[in-house]
Specification:
single chain, 263 residues, alpha/beta, Rossmann fold, 2 domains, 7-stranded mixed beta sheet, 4-stranded antiparallel beta sheet, 6 helices, 24% helix, globular
Length: 263
């Protein structure tokens, strides 16, 4: 009996209201939790960089403001539109590409290719995840570095998680306040987590909009992700905890996985 192949990430998840809400929840106007880490890696690798899953510019615009040479790629047109508008307002000439991270081809390579904020995990098909690493490898210069981040609530891996508030944010310009809530169901055998998201938008204490979306992500174990990197051709693969350069341990909910292209 054949097993249905999980679908590619839905382009329509980050469209319309969700793109606008995302920009409020993760504005690029203030420091980002992973900014210093990626700024160090880009400076260490000395060359142009490509951010995969650039979104509305949460991290890209902060790195451009530091004078770093970074381009962005995303599948969601509405996210790229907001990123482009924000970059223009700040006087940046941002280079943005509309493509899937699985099989993109930009015709050039970079000193650093990175997938921050756990975007790699939206590839629920193992074949797509491996193909993505192949694309990242092809776009990494010989001697260059590819980095992805992964995130798992190891202490919270029960089969279900009830609804709870995830985060909130506000936009002083529009007076909007946004809340993000989610419930989850986890398949520990298949390493899949399905999240039901609800985004509520408020103005002056009144609910003005609400939108719901569903997304499934895959979580990884350490040696599994290392073998996937090595299968793609990377060497010197390291797994660091959080946004640090410390070896990953059980104390870390998120990892930074780094691999170098030989040459």
């Amino acid at each position: 009996m054949s097993v249905a192949r999980p679908a590619l990430p839905r382009e329509d998840f980050y469209t319309d209201q969700v793109a606008d809400v995302y920009d409020i929840l993760f504005p690029p106007d203030g420091p980002q939790v992973d900014e210093e880490f990626f700024a160090r890696r880009l400076a260490h690798n000395r060359g142009p960089a490509l951010e995969i899953g650039v979104g509305t510019g949460r991290l890209l615009l902060r790195l451009l403001a530091r004078g770093l040479d970074v381009e962005g790629l995303d599948l969601a047109q509405d996210m790229l539109r907001i990123c482009r508008e924000r970059a223009h307002a700040k006087g940046f000439s941002a280079v943005l590409h509309h493509a899937s991270m699985v099989d993109f081809d930009l015709g050039r390579s970079f000193a650093t290719v990175f997938v921050p904020f756990f975007s790699f995990q939206v590839l629920t098909s193992r074949a797509d995840a491996q193909a993505c690493l192949g694309s990242l490898f092809r776009h990494t210069r010989p001697g260059g570095e590819t980095i992805i981040t992964t995130w798992t609530h190891w202490e919270d891996l029960g089969p279900e998680r009830p609804w709870k508030l995830i985060r909130d944010g506000s936009c002083p310009r529009t007076g909007l306040f946004v809340t993000s809530s989610a419930a989850s169901r986890i398949d520990r055998t298949e390493q899949l987590q399905t999240n039901w998201f609800r985004y509520d938008t408020w103005r002056e204490g009144k609910l003005v909009d609400s939108v719901s979306r569903v997304e499934t992500i895959r979580f990884y174990h350490k040696h599994e992700i290392v073998m996937m990197f090595e299968r793609a051709g990377f060497v010197d693969v390291r797994v660091w905890g959080d946004e640090s350069e410390d070896e990953a341990t059980d104390a870390h909910a998120s990892w930074s996985v780094l691999g170098r292209r030989p040459g």
